[in-house]
Amino acid sequence: MNIFRIKRQLRRRWRRWRRAIWTIGGCGLVTMMTWLGLMLSNQMEQLMAKEPIALETLGIIREAAIGAGKETDLESAWIEQLNQSRQRRTVHLNKIYACGEESSVLGTLSPDEVIEIYRSNPGWQGSIDAQGDVWFEQQINELSETCRSNGYFGIDQQGNLSLFDGPPDKEKVLKTFFQLDVETMESSLPPDVLLHLHQGIRIQDLDEYNSVLSTFSEFAAMPARKVMQQKDE
Known about the structure:
233 residues, Alpha-Beta Plaits, 4-stranded antiparallel β-sheet, flat
C-alpha cells in the first residue's frame, strides 16, 4: 500500500468522523435548547401562578399607605385623641347635600369601631366636638329629601335669591345665595318670569337646581357677582 492510498483512506475516514461529530453536536445542541426551553417555560408558569398573590399584596400595601396618609396628613389629631382616651363615644353622621343637610346618630361606639367606619368610608371627614362626640361629615352632590319633596327657589324680603322649604310666602328659608339686581330683572325679563319667581320655582332634582341657580346668577347684584367670580377662580 503506497502513501497516496493511505492518505485517501485517512481523508475518507476523517470525512466520516467529521460528519458524525457534526451530527452528534447538532443533536446535543437541539437537546440542550429543548431542555432550556422547558426550564424557562416552567419558570414562567411559576411566575404567572404567583402574580395574583403579588398583585393582591401590592393592593394591600397601597390601601395601607393610603389609609396611613389619610390619617397622618388630614385628620391625625382627632384619631390620636380617640385612641388616647379609649372611651366609647356618641357618633353622628352629618350628610351635606348640594341642597340641605341631614344628621343622624350612628350609635355609641368604641374607638376601634369608629376607626373601622372611618376607614370603610374614605370620602368622609371626621372630628370630635367640645362635648367629646364624634362627627362624620359626608358630602353628597345631590338634593336632600327635604329639597326634593318641598324645595322652592324664590326671593326673600331682602331681595336675595333663596331656597325655601315650601312656597316663599311661608318664609321658611333653607339657604340664601346672593342679592338680586331686581331693577335689571324687571327691565330684562318677562313679567310672568318674575311672578313665577315670587311665587316660587319648584325644584325636584339636581339638574333643575343648578339650572335655576345658573340662570339667576346673571342677575346677581355687583358685589355678589364679584364674590361668585372669585369663587369660580
